[in-house]
Hints:
Blueprint: E1 3-7, E2 10-12, E3 18-25, E4 33-39, E5 46-51, E6 58-60, E7 68-73, E8 78-83, E9 92-99, E10 105-108, E11 112-116
Parallel strand pairs: 2-11
Antiparallel strand pairs: 1-3, 3-8, 4-5, 4-9, 5-6, 7-8, 9-10, 9-11
Amino acid sequence: xxxxxxxxxxxxxxxxxxxxxxxxxxxxxxxxxxxxxxxxxxxxxxxxxxxxxxxxxxxxxxxxxxxxxxxxxxxxxxxxxxxxxxxxxxxxxxxxxxxxxxxxxxxxxxxxxxxxxx
Length: 118
C-alpha cells in the first residue's frame, strides 16, 4: 500500500520557521522525484519545491527561493521541507507527492496545514 505521510505543520508567527516531513512507504521511493505542493484557500494547488531521484537537483517556486530548502534521505524514505522567514502568504495546506518529474505525479499525501499568523 502506497503511503505518503506529511507532518510538521502548525501555527507559526511571521518570520518563523517550520520543518515539514514526508515519510514514504509501499513503493520504490528512491526511483521517484519527490515534490511539495501547496494549496491556499480559493487558490489552485502550486508547486513549491521538488527534488530529483539522487537529491542533487532541486527546483523551487520563485516565491520561496532563498527561504525554503528541500532535502531527501533515500535510506529513510523521507523528504523534508525546511521553511524559514515564513510569511502570511505561505499559509496553505502542504502536500508531498511522488512522480516522474516535478510536475508528473503518481502519488499524493493527505496534506498538512501551515498557518502563518500573529
